[in-house]
Amino acid sequence: MSTTTYGWLVLAFPLLGTLITAFGYRVLPGRTAGWIGTAAIFLAFLAALGALISLQGHASEHRQIVSSLWSYASTVGIDAQMSILVDPLSVFMILVVSGVSTLIHLYSISYMDKDRGFVRYFSYLNFFVFSMLLLVLAGNFLLLIVGWAFVGAASYLLISFWYRRSTATKAGIKAFVINVVGDVGLVLGTYFIFKHTGTLNFLATFKAAPHVFHKGEADIVAGCLLLLVGAIAKSAQIPLHTWLPDAMEGPTPVSALIHAATMVTAGVYLIARMHVLFELAPAAQDTGAVIRAATLLLAAGCGHGHESSIGKGFTFIDSGGNDKKIVFNGEPPSSVVIDARVDRYTRDATKIIAARRPLVDHALTPACEYWIIDTGTRVAHRIPDAAQWPEVHCDNP
Q: Exposed, middle or buried by CB within 10 Å (0-12, 13-18, 19+), for 201?
């Protein structure tokens, strides 16, 4: 099986899971939808492993493989294809997204067991993972924009999942609107770049960019700044960070999925993918560094300023119907990870690869924290009040 075939399977399995759970919601009994959704993401993870193993069989200079199903649009100089790019960066991302998402799906089967929207939840969850995988596997700007928009739509569906609560619907709308701002920035940034390169294909764009743009030229700086707007919105950086704390209105596994594993890493991926363009726009790099430093300081301030009896930085939030959960009151440290890719002094591709490690840490550690804290809270609610405990006398102090 070819490397790109594995890439297409990574997309096919979550999409199939979405369709089965969406159209079979009336006939799927018990936890069936949960197991189908989890199996779909696990199969995507296995396909990602297949892509990784297959990619190792290629020489290092031939590890950027493009596959196209059909030409989506070919008019007025635009040649947009339904194509994916399988390279070390995209394989790394699909492994992180599908691997962590599999665990979140598995945890959700028990967590959402008594919820009336059980089947709907797994349909939304599969759609979210499909959208994120489409985003990181896209071989051109058009498919990137489509995946980017799909992730925003899926986040709205999941954050406002308990739509009978007005706070949940408001939080979903807020996340959707702010992410649309990022979508607009991404589209406009693509225009500035396409105007000079004449192509939407990633590899062709990166090859042409050093020849059609002068370093620090107005159009490339404007294009990269607009791409940065998309990254800032998706990864919840200042000033487009306010949607993220409100996103806690969704079920706890959704918080783990959005905050830690996938959505906030989309901006990281965008900067990593476009690093060739950012190298031609030092002003955009400096702007990104300043914004992320400010976000980091804000996150540290939020964590220091909110304390509860459980510990520094944690607070109780009612999850509506289910047991209460405890969440970290602050923005994710993705600003640290993403800044490693735009720093004007970090131009070596090997340093970009080395910067992936904190991304993995950020994907796994906070997600596990959500599960552990939520599980601990559920157990704590089943412990009798201390006043009802029997007295214990100790003769030997």
A: buried
Locate the DSSP E strands across the chain: 65-75, 78-86, 314-317, 325-328
Question: CA-CA distance, 55 to 326, in Å (whole number)?
Answer: 41
Structure tokens at 205: 């764009």
Coil, strand, or helix at residue 69?
A: strand
278 near 284, Cβ under 8 Å? yes
H or E stretch at 49: helix 32-56
Q: Residue 314 carries which DSSP code?
A: E
SS3 content of the chain, % helix, strand, coil (to 5): 70, 10, 25
Residues 33, 178: Cα–Cα separation, whole Å? 31
Q: Quick one: which of 386, 175, 186 has its CA closest to 269?
A: 186
Percent of the chain with pLDDT over 90: 19
Q: Pick the closest to residue 98 from 69, 134, 67 (CA basis).
A: 134
Examine the pLDDT at 73 and tell me if it is beyond 60.
yes
Write the DSSP symbol of residue 59: -
Please check whether residue 3 is in contact with residue 86, taking contact to mean a CB–CB distance below 8 angstroms: yes
Maximal C-alpha separation, the chain: 90
CA pair distance 366, 362, nearest whole angstrom: 6
Using the predicted structure, report yes or no on whether residue 52 has a pLDDT greater than 70: yes
pLDDT tens figures, 85-130? 998 888 988 988 888 889 889 888 888 888 888 889 999 999 999 9
Q: How far apart are CA 277 and CA 224, in angstroms?
A: 7
> Do the beta carbons of residue 124 and residue 157 sit within 8 Å?
yes
pTM score = 0.80
CA dist 200 and 155 (Å) reads: 26
